[in-house]
Amino acid sequence: MTGGTAAKVDEVHTDDRALTQIGGNGNAEVDRYWDLARLKVRRKRFSEALAALEELLEADPFHVEGLLLRARVLEEAGRMDEARKAYRKVISGYPEYSPGHREFGRFLLFTEGSPGASETHLMKGLTINPQDAFAHALLAEVYARTGRKQQALLHVEIASRFRTEDIRYFEVCAKVLARLGESTEQVRLLKRTVFSHADNRAAKVRFKRAMRAERREKKNPRAFKRYLQKVLP
After folding, report:
1. Biggest alpha carbon distance in the chain?
2. What's the Cα-to-Cα distance from 2 to each of 7, 8, 28, 93, rounded to whole Å?
3. Percentages (nearest 5) of helix, strand, coil residues in the chain
């Protein structure tokens, strides 16, 4: 969900492992509304997605994945005050649910521009699940924004140890590496490592083009940053 500006979310992704490996709880009605909500989200029909989620949560008020998806859809719909309250409801009701802390941390960083508060929730989520690649990438973005370059590089490196299909992860890593803008061997290796893991063809193509642009302008380390500014809104 990294968007054109930091405050705008491009898309609600429902391929996140924490949001897809659910259901099968023995309640066919709940499963049906969950599948319907995700379908509506993929089609960006957010009002219909919210309606399906309301039905789901009426049938199962403790469906934490549904509560989190509702917060993300409210955010995408531009209903930021409601989204913030919805995220708060998730983390207060389910304090050991790591995706809730990660998504609220992302919301605080990109929507509210609060890296300090974001860091708190990202660290909490990583304490619960230290193998969350996207949370590490988001924490790297926090550090890159606040001038802590070595910590940013460290968390991109940690993130690259774990696989994820979430396109948001690759977008955030690209932005972090572009923000660092250093043509060191460490940065070059991280660029190759992160994007060699991309199953998303578009991300791979964009990264390869960026690498070629960087090689053409070896004497200008800002080439990679300029290219990503063009291809990543």
Report:
1. 61
2. 8, 7, 33, 26
3. 70, 0, 30
| Token digits of residue 124 | 């909490």
Same domain, yes or no, for 143 and 224? Answer: yes
Would you say 19 and 68 are in contact if contact means Cβ atoms under 8 Å apart? yes
Give yes or no: residues 107 and 38 share one domain: yes
Angle, CA 129 vertex, CA 182 and CA 169 arms, to 5°: 40
Tell me the two tokens of residue 11: 């898309």
CB 149 within 8 A of CB 143: yes
pLDDT in tens, 173-203: 888 887 777 667 777 778 777 777 767 676 6
pLDDT tens, residue by residue, 73-91: 999 999 999 999 999 999 9
211 lies in the same domain as 147: yes
Look-up of token digits 């300029």: 226
In whole angstroms, what is the distance from residue 61 CA to residue 126 CA?
Answer: 26
The reply to whether 124 and 189 lie within a common domain is no
Considering the domain architecture, whether residues 12 and 94 belong to the same structural domain is answered as: yes
